[in-house]
Amino acid sequence: MKKSIKRVVSLSLCAAMAAGSLAGCSSKKAEPADTATTAAAETATKAGGETSAEGETTEGAAASDKPFDGVTLKYATTQTASTGEENQKLIELVKEKTGINIEFYVIPSAKSGEVDKTLVSLMAGDEIDLIYNTKPGLKAFYNAGVLEPMNALAEKAGYDIAGTFGDYVPEFGGDVYGLPAFSDIWITLYNKQIFDDAGVDYPTADGWTWEKYIETAKKLTDSSKGIYGSLMLDYDCYNYMYALQKGWEPYKADGTGNFDDPLFKESLEFYYGLGNTEKIQPSILEFKASNTPWNAFATTGKYGMFMCGGWVTSILNQFDKYPRDWKVGLLPMPYPEGTDPSTLTVPGCYAVPTTSKNKDAAFAAAACMAENQYTLGMGRVPARIDLTDEEINEYVENSLAKPFEFDGLTVEDFKTAWFDSSRKALSEKIIGDGDAAISQAIIEEGQLYGQGAESIDDAVTKIQDKANRAIEEDKQ
User: What is the Cα–Cα distance from 222 to 279, expressed in whole angstroms?
Assistant: First the structure.
């Protein structure tokens, strides 16, 4: 598989961001001045009846603006997500704009190593109308044959998928299988208090390389105070992020794994070396032994910098849940010296399962959710490419930057970190044959190497072997 490298969506909207292929149906595109309703409203109108020359609708006119008014759909999610503020706001928004009622179909969360329980439920034939997952995550649902292709649904509704979302859409086998609501872009967060205490100047986005990151983290690390200059988590993508930024592809041209590429080995050494050699963050052994939580940057105040997906900013302005008296700074993701600036990213999407009994209404709801979720004030970066410069600037100022007035973060800080048109966007997740098993192998063998339980060469060999077996099994 050849992983596409796109440019991050620019303020001039000249390019779309994220891995994947352009797909969708051709139809009239929403006018920029009417983006509050946009294509979701157009979908409802077209589904309800054609408009006459005088602006009157034909038979069924009374319901043409909300043709699915009163329809109830089942949205599969976890108990925690169903009670979360964002999902509660989201179903209210859908009700307001489309008249559709959404009920949560609560499914237990899968434990590490378990198959997604929503996938299990769908494979058992449970009637579900909407699901949410990342673009890579939807691949497993596609492989299982439980997702409804959206091209025909969009054509029936007169909906322009490509004109609304561009390259963000999850496309498999030539069809679109989800509508992206937002894209999670990786960033660097930093604790200004730790910088101040160490007498270190705040870093800038210009020339923010990994070399500069490590140099800065060393100045911040103070073992006597239990302070590390850096924090990263144990996700699979940390193992290969450095290789991706240097141009590595997870699959060779013949479809086999590319984990015996020297760049992948270098990436493993780089990531685990941050804790084992550079000593700027907990080693993977310390990280696992102490059960370091994912929100440790926000809750402990003991880490100078945190490099992760931008979704983590959503907890930093929740002072009731995560109180802090220190201020946070924001930068893009670092990149290897001598390469072009780059970042990891993954779109979050809404999809319609094959078990839905009302797929047209489910598509209308998915379109509404995908188009409007970013407006809910939860710090999302919209996946839509049809927004104007003015709309983006207004959104950044009022939704992204405003909640961080305490920290002194500016509109320009957010634009630089999240809307840099010159920054390459690389898929956070491996997408292709055997991808789930490959990710697990990378975590297992990578951590064994990081903990000193096996050599780097043994880890690479085992990952390559496991990857090729997973690829072959997926093809059968």
Answer: 10
Between 456-475 and 435-450, two packed helices, what is the crossing angle to 10 degrees?
170
Nearest in space to 241 (alpha carbons), one of 282, 210, 217, 283: 210
Q: What angle do CA 472, 440, 471 make, to 5 degrees?
A: 10
Distance CA 332, CA 244 (A): 16
- Which value, in Å, is the radius of gyration of the alpha carbons in the chain? 23
Q: Measured between alpha carbons, how far is residue 211 from residues 214, 230, 306, 339, 369 in Å?
A: 5, 13, 15, 12, 40
The pLDDT value recorded for residue 38 is: 45
Residue 36 CB: number of other CB atoms within 10 A? Answer: 13
Which of 7, 25, 27 is CA-nearest to residue 17? 7
Q: Boundaries of CATH 3.40.190.10 in the chain?
A: 35-45+63-184+346-407, 185-345+410-475
Residues in the chain: 476
| Class (C level, CATH) for 185-345+410-475 | alpha beta
Closest CA to 84 of 329, 238, 363, 311: 311
Tokens matching residue 198: 């160490």
What is the average per-residue pLDDT within 131-142? 91
Mean predicted confidence (pLDDT) in 53-66: 47
Given its phi and psi angles, is residue 60 left (phi above 0), alpha (psi -120 to 50 degrees) or beta? left
User: What's the token pair of residue 185?
Assistant: 């872009």
Q: Residue 35: beta bridge partners? A: none
Query: Which helix (H) or strand (E) covers residue 424, if one does?
Result: strand 424-427
Structure tokens at 355: 């078990």
Does domain 35-45+63-184+346-407 match CATH 3.40.190.10?
yes
Question: Residue 205's pLDDT is what?
Answer: 95
Q: With CA atoms as reference, report the closest residue to 134 among 118, 123, 112, 120.
A: 118
Taking the C-alpha atoms of residue 82 and residue 385, their distance in angstroms, rounded to an integer, is 28
CA distance 42 to 64: 10
Q: To 5 degrees, how large is the angle CA 195–CA 199–CA 205?
A: 50
269 three-state secondary structure: helix
Q: Would you place residue 238 in the very low, low, confident or very high pLDDT band (cuts 50, 70, 90)?
A: very high
Residue 187, H or E segment: strand 179-191
For 379, residues 6+ apart whose C-beta sits below 8 A from its C-beta are 310, 311, 313, 314, 317, 399, 400, 403
Q: How far apart are CA 162 and CA 25, in angstroms?
A: 7
